[in-house]
Amino acid sequence: MNNVASVLSRLITSALIIILVAMVSYWVLGLISPDETRNLNLAQYLLQVVSGDLGQSQFYHQANLQLVLQVLPATFELVLVTSLLVVLVVIPLGLFTAIAPQHKLARSIMAVSLIGISLPVFLTGSIMVYFFAVELNWLPTFGRGTTVPIGSWQSGLLTVSGWQHIMLPAATLSLALLPLFLRLLRAELLQVMQSNPVRLAQAMGITPWRIWLFYGLRNATLPMITMAGLQFGTLMAYTIVAESLFQWPGAGSLFMQAINRSDGPLVSAHLILVAIMFLSVSAIADLAYGLFNPHLAAWRRQ
Amino acid sequence: MNAAKYHGHHIWRRFRRQQLWLQLKANKVALISSVILLLLTVTALLAPWLSPFDPSVLQQQNIMDAELPPAWHEQGDSRFLLGTDGLGRDLLSSLLHGIRTSLWVGFWAVLLQLTLGTVLGLCAGYFGGWMDRLVMRLADFQLTFSSLMLAILVLAITRAAMGAHDYHVWSPWLLILVLGLADWPQYARTLRASVLAEKHKDYVAAAQVLGYRSRHIMVMQILPNTLSPLLVIATLQVAHVILAEAALSFLGIGMPYGNPSLGGMMGSGFEYMLSGLWWIALMPGIALVLLLLSINLVADWLRDALDPKNIGPQQ
Question: Which of A149, A175, B116, B282 has its CA 20 to 30 A from that of B15?
């Protein structure tokens, strides 16, 4: 019963936020393209948005929603590969620097991560482009390469050229996020390793690997999820920068193009879609939090 | 006059006797980074006099000097220590002016953040109730949305509405305004927590009994006791704002093209990097990282040094 009420209140707030954002985007539409709002009042615009019609782009003469849905797979795949890279690198490095904090290599990893926090996305991107594309000529620097359609989804992850193209942007983005997550994971693991359950497990003679993975990592997941949810806005901003650096044909590039062409309808459609994305991510983060949090799970069972 | 001089001298003597100075002397990383930061700040402030060329004077540019590598390179020219960009402008001069722009934006935006965050945090903590709930709700929302994303949206929309030309007349001020208004939650949260811890102490009750106004109690009694965490956040935020400014200028929605800024220089240098001319984008990049790293390290040290847990005899 409690669950139903909380889901309902969440849905109602989300709907209110979207309507609020739609009002802002109507105002933005009037600012950028005054012609568009001349024959369309706020109520009509809101009705359109609620019925799923986000208007037509002035430049492409196509439905905005369709335009964004066409480029969304590119952004989604970039974010997916970036997250995979971050997880794959952060877990071993985090475990190592927490288990052997005094080791020389661990200390230098932490020192490098401190420098990494001060490295802007576009600088790491430029340096990687210079080394891997200009000097070594290994990887391409712009576009997505060959894509294969899966239904209406254009995927670049099924071709060699697609993987070659995604390497530099994904590596750039994950380097920007790595230091933050590495420092968080290490701090959490160090704390967990000092806790009584872990000491008990050590005293019981449970193998170190089991302790690290099942006691350490599992307990450190929760703050990592919170952090991932909190960092979503930053990730989005960095994605826009990386997409324009590598001319990645995703939603960020489409947004910047719409800005440069003063395409009012496309810009205001982006605002609404960003709001929807934020609401879904925060809902997913809360769900994941509930799944991984033993306290919440116990409270649910009562 | 004499009293002011004496007072200044007094403060300097106190500073030298204090833990802060002793800890700075003991911590090599902090000492080096604060020296670098000081050097960068001084060169940036003196940029109009120190730099060999004036980046805004077109007569000093010569397209024949374009794309020259740094002076230590074989094809380098001794007039241009760090080389020139695609239009023949001296990179060193643009760099010094760019650091100046970064620090200028950082300073004013952080001042704005600090003021807004302090007022909101003090009010939320001191008055509680609906004001507390409203401020904290807004803070949560702003934190999740991230100031950079908000700045991108607001500045991009303004640019699309005004057109590139008109926009760049206003963009330096808009940049400060947006970055200054967007990043208040950290100050407000920290201050609110300290105010909640302070407000039930005896000295506040005494001030209330004596009949002081709320404003006086908040600003004159509680605020001085909660200053050190604010100072640490403000220092970190300078780096954050400088990074955001660079990213926005890189995207073309920050500083106007004529104004030298580190992010804008890297943005226009990226195309040259693709044809192997690495210095045009890399030199401002190195300057930016040096600036950010030294600010971050100083802030780290400040946090440890001001932490009450660490004050007392050092081992």
Answer: B116
pLDDT band at A9 (very low <50, low <70, confident <90, very high): confident
Sign of the alpha-carbon dihedral angle for B162, B164, B170, B173: positive
Give the Cα separation of B106 and B115 in Å (integer): 14
Confirm if B231 and B295 have CB atoms less than 8 A apart.
no
Cβ distance A126 to B160 less than 8 Å, yes or no, reads no
Note whether B240 and B179 are within 8 A (CB).
no
Contact B161 A258 (CB under 8 A): no
Query: In the Cβ-directed half-sphere of A169, how many Cα atoms lie within 13 Å?
Result: 34
**Residue A150, strand partner residues:** A153
Distance CA B263, CA B249 (A): 5
Query: Which residue, chain included where needed, has tokens 């802060």?
Result: B20
Do residues B163 and B170 touch, judged by C-beta distance below 8 A?
no
Phi, psi of A41, rounded to the nearest 5 degrees = -90, 175
> Of B107, B101, B111, B104, whose CA–CA distance to B181 is shortest?
B111
User: Which residues of A fall within a CB distance of 8 Å from B150?
Assistant: 233
Instruction: Specify the residue for token string 């391409």.
Output: A140
Is CATH 1.10.10.10 what the domain over B3-13+27-47+85-310 is classified as, yes or no? Answer: no
User: pLDDT of A189-247, one tens digit each?
Assistant: 888 888 888 888 888 888 888 888 877 888 788 788 888 888 888 888 899 999 988 88
3-class SS of residue B90: strand
- How do the domains of chain B map onto residue ranges? 3-13+27-47+85-310
Residue of A114, A117, A118, A247 to mutate, interface with B, max B Cβ within 10 Å: A118
* Encoded tokens for B311: 């004050």
Q: Does residue B43 sit at the A interface (CB-CB below 8 Å)?
A: no
The answer to whether A122 contacts B263, with C-beta atoms less than 8 Å apart, is: yes
Task: Say yes or no to pLDDT of B308 above 70.
Answer: no
Residue pLDDT, tens place only, A268-294: 899 999 889 888 888 888 787 777 766
Q: Which residues of B touch A118 (CB under 8 A)?
A: 239, 243, 289, 292-293, 296
| Backbone torsions φ then ψ of A153, nearest 5 degrees | -95, 115
pLDDT at residue B258 is higher than 60: yes
Per-chain mean pLDDT for chain A: 84
Pick the closest to residue A261 from A27, A17, A33 (CA basis): A33
pTM (2 decimals)? 0.84
pLDDT tens digits, B28-64? 888 888 899 999 999 888 878 877 777 776 666 666 6
